[in-house]
Amino acid sequence: MNHIEKAQQLFAKGCEFKRKGLIKDAISEFSRTIIMIHLVYKTENFDREKELMFVKEIQIPCFLKLCSCYLKAHEEISKVVVLCSDVLEIDSTNAKAYFLRAQASNLTHHFDKALKDIAKARENQPDNLKFRDFQVNARKKKKETELKPRISFSALTLIGKTLLSLCKHRRLPIT
To answer: What's 3-150's CATH class?
Structure first.
């Protein structure tokens, strides 16, 4: 079995684990697939057509499925950003890569990055309801965090002193 066939086999096994909901096992298999992909590039002499087929059928789907698993497991969020960026270097119109990277940015509270990526995803797939719903929720989340009051410690101290002086002035018991 050559390295390409081994990569295909590992990828298929990872997909099966993901389908069954065995996310940790899927992560393991997709990670092994990526290692095999690196070996393929080191050992294979590709003609352009064969390389494009390998990238489209194994490399990009593997990267994206691994990202999806990381997000489901709430692990390695920074790797999601890196892997999706790698996919976007190969295919700058890959809506799923933009969507997954937007999810990772959203989880790390980088709302502007998330909104930028989801806008790109929607440019490529404007009718995708999942993308639209995510964009609406990301906007709400950004707005909520912007509206949260930011009270400094000194402001809290001032409020406390003011309340203390009011209690003393009215001769209220301080509890």
So the answer is: mainly alpha
